[in-house]
């Protein structure tokens, strides 16, 4: 009973302290505590550049040989010599293989002998005719004898012409025993070996020769690009660039040769053919490559790093760093993306600063800290690694 007043007093003091604390914390008359500003987000930034920008139409095509010839034999005979190695670069007229020439040379010798015999007979017949003509004038020879002799001379002359034709044909056949390259090019896989008999009817012939310098590229573009291509072709030859399949390595630079004479209705595309000097032989028949047709050059075009462009529900946008150091979302129109650079049609001005890396932590009005030098390189590398991880 003596402790009860002490306990009551302690409870009163405790309740009073709690009430004072609650009034101190929650009393609206007290000034509000200052809000803590959001921390700045580190980003990598870049400037909007202004310069002349080439405008390309992009397509995918297949490399084909400028000329391609399967070397066939026009005569039959055993091959006595192979004069090339597979994959060898050859010139027009180079010997590729030799067919046994002896049978064809013997035929020439036989026809030559026949021709010489007929020539001798013609000389004799002409001499007789020359003797008969004076005798006819004096009445010592009949007109029938002279006419018969003239007919014999004419017959022998025709026979000699036939002999000459046969001789020419035999000489042509002899020339066919030398199988030569009809074009400059590179030989493929040999289809017949030395010692075998080759025939004109052989499907694969001796070898395939492909001309690769120059070389051609057949590629396609959407049919709606045809008016633009036609308009630019009227101004002069158009340049075409060939790139590797990953679009990173430039293989060669050439010229547009022609646009096909009809649009492919099933695909809605137009076929084009370009030629390349192919000095380094980086283009090879059958290869699939990316083609860039240069159709125009944008004077004073605005470009930014392609990584700065983001995609949202309303289209493309970038984060522009405002003068107050905050990120401002800006919708943009991208004309093309080439070599990691985006050509901007609208939405930006020259020399504005945009975020090129670190956008995933940004929102409208987020304060940013622009990284410089080594820090920027490390941040870009870390971002690339994160994007590569599935």
From TrEMBL:
- Where's the YknX-like C-terminal permuted SH3-like domain? 302-370
Enumerate the subcellular locations listed in this protein's record, separating them with semicolons: Cell membrane
Q: Which domain of life is it from?
A: Bacteria
Boundaries of every Multidrug resistance protein MdtA-like alpha-helical hairpin domain copy: 108-177
Q: Where is the signal peptide?
A: 1-21
Segments forming domain Multidrug resistance protein MdtA-like beta-barrel: 214-297
InterPro entries membership: MdtA-like_b-barrel, MdtA-like_BSH, MdtA-like_HH, RND_pump_MFP, YknX-like_C
Q: Which residues form the Multidrug resistance protein MdtA-like barrel-sandwich hybrid domain?
A: 68-206
Ordered alphabetically, the record's keywords are: Cell inner membrane, Cell membrane, Membrane, Signal, Transport
UniProt GO cellular component terms: efflux pump complex
> Where does it primarily localize?
membrane
Q: Which GO terms describe its molecular function?
A: efflux transmembrane transporter activity
Identify its protein family: Belongs to the membrane fusion protein (MFP) (TC 8.A.1) family.
Q: What is this protein identified as?
A: Efflux RND transporter periplasmic adaptor subunit
